């Protein structure tokens, strides 16, 4: 069973997510939290597989709650950020804090359950179109980086190409079609570049690609 912790300051929202999760044959809600601090405490105590974390909560918000959970080296809980708006100003900070991706609160129940399963397997979930808008808004306003980070030089040309395509929001299937290789080969390239750059998942890879200057947002 995939063990899920719900973190949202609105009890009605938590109830809705509980109904969806508990009705899945392979999932179980193990706890509920009203803010980020309580979520971090319960995550340490219950060791859930996934936390569905709201961003905007009173006292300790979802960003700080995510940071506290991710900072616990003994805790392998994955975090999915939930937001009402796809350009919520806190989402980028949440991804940097250690979240494995984010979903909109109006996500279909089937897509929510699928996302939970994906992050449980160790992958990340961010809608490609939303990724592009998010990164271009929050990372595209600063000056371009002049000197690329040293670890970027450890990538092969193909790995750099795959990293660029990840940052552009392409899925593994789309990348495979673009560079004329199998999807399995793309997965291998992704795994290798994540290991070389010491990144947790493809969400961090997107942020890295923009922050390093490898990819720049399109000019409107």
From TrEMBL:
4-aspartylphosphate: modified positions: 54
CDD domains: LuxR_C_like (cd06170), REC_NarL-like (cd17535)
GO molecular function, one term: DNA binding
SMART domains: HTH_LUXR, REC
HTH luxR-type domain span: 148-213
Response regulatory domain mapped to chain residues: 3-120
Keyword terms of this UniProt record: DNA-binding, Phosphoprotein, Transcription, Transcription regulation
Biological process annotations from GO: phosphorelay signal transduction system; regulation of DNA-templated transcription
InterPro entries, per database record: CheY-like_superfamily, NreC/VraR/RcsB-like_REC, Sig_transdc_resp-reg_C-effctor, Sig_transdc_resp-reg_receiver, Tscrpt_reg_LuxR_C, WalR-like
SUPFAM superfamilies per the UniProt record, alphabetical: C-terminal effector domain of the bipartite response regulators, CheY-like
Name of the protein in its database record: Two component transcriptional regulator, LuxR family
């Amino acid at each position: 069973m995939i063990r899920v912790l719900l973190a949202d300051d609105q009890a009605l929202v938590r109830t809705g997510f509980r109904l969806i999760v508990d009705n899945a044959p392979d999932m179980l809600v193990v706890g509920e939290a009203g803010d980020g601090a309580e979520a971090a405490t319960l995550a340490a105590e219950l060791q859930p597989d996934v936390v569905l974390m709201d961003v905007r909560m009173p006292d300790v918000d979802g960003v700080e709650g995510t940071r506290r959970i991710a900072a616990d080296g003994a805790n392998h809980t994955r975090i999915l950020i939930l937001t009402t708006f796809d350009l919520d100003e806190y989402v980028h900070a949440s991804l940097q804090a250690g979240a494995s991706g984010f979903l909109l609160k109006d996500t279909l129940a089937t897509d929510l359950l699928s996302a939970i399963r994906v992050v449980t397997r160790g992958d990340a979930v961010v809608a490609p179109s939303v990724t592009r808008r998010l990164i271009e808004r929050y990372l595209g306003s600063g000056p371009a980086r002049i000197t690329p980070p040293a670890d970027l030089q450890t990538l092969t040309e193909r790995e750099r190409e795959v990293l660029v395509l990840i940052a552009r929001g392409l899925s593994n299937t789309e990348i495979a079609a673009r560079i004329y290789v199998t999807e399995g080969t793309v997965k291998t390239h992704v795994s290798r570049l994540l290991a070389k750059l010491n990144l947790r998942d493809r969400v961090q890879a997107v942020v890295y690609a923009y922050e390093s200057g490898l990819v720049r947002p399109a000019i409107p």
